[in-house]
Write a structure and sequence with these properties.
213 residues, alpha/beta, Barwin-like endoglucanases, six-stranded mixed β-barrel, 3 helices, 6 strands
């Protein structure tokens, strides 16, 4: 009994290996209804009618297959996420979106060719080697362009003019303050002279009155 099981297992393995070795298949294809959206597949993923997926009997989950409608030669690349179909004569079940891509919605069942895609559309492009850039500093004399020189000279002249204006304004203010101070001193001296004259005149008048007595 154990020997018979071993033989059966070995034959099944050889059959699967032979099927896997076949890179092309011809047969009938059907597709999932939109109402199947959300159903859990054999791989554990949820089925969605807008995804380009399929069910196959033995290809490993994640395998990419190219399915061609033999009636119009339209093709689509799908990913295996489920097991099936188990209907007689059918070799693959497509998602609704994949069936629409090869224009088999109206047919319901279509004769197709199924091929393994060895290298599907890459999601990550191959890295391109960029040439190395030489960052060595070149030994040379750098000079300003004439335009830059003229702009620099104009800026400096403008700054010098501003400095001269500020200096002149400061000097004018200082001179004005000095003149105001001199005027104040002159007024004080004039007031002192006036007071002195008044004082002398008053003293002389009092002296004259005293003599007349």
């Amino acid at each position: 009994m154990t020997f018979q099981r071993l033989i059966i297992t070995l034959l099944a393995f050889l059959c699967l290996t032979a099927c896997w070795a076949q890179k092309k298949q011809h047969g009938k294809a059907s597709y999932y209804s939109k109402r199947a959206t959300g159903a859990r597949t054999a791989s554990g993923q949820r089925l969605h009618h807008d995804s380009l997926t399929c069910a196959h009997r033995y290809y490993p989950f994640g395998t990419h297959l190219k399915v061609t409608n033999l009636r119009n030669n339209k093709s689509v690349i799908v990913k295996v996420i489920d097991r099936g179909p188990f209907g007689r004569g059918r070799i693959i079940d497509l998602s609704w979106a994949a069936a629409k891509e090869i224009d088999m919605i109206a047919q319901g069942v279509a004769s197709v060719k199924v091929e393994i895609v060895e290298k599907p559309v890459p999601f990550r492009p191959e890295e391109e080697k960029l040439p190395q850039i030489d960052f060595e500093v070149a030994e040379s004399d750098y000079t300003l362009e004439p335009h830059w020189n003229s702009q620099s000279a104009k800026t400096k002249t403008h700054q010098d003019k501003n400095l001269k204006k500020e200096a002149h304004s400061t000097k004018t203010k200082e001179t004005s303050a000095k003149k105001d101070e001199e005027k104040m001193l002159n007024k004080k001296e004039s007031r002192k002279d006036t007071e002195s004259k008044i004082s002398k005149a008053t003293a002389a008048h009092e002296h004259k009155i005293h003599r007349n007595k």
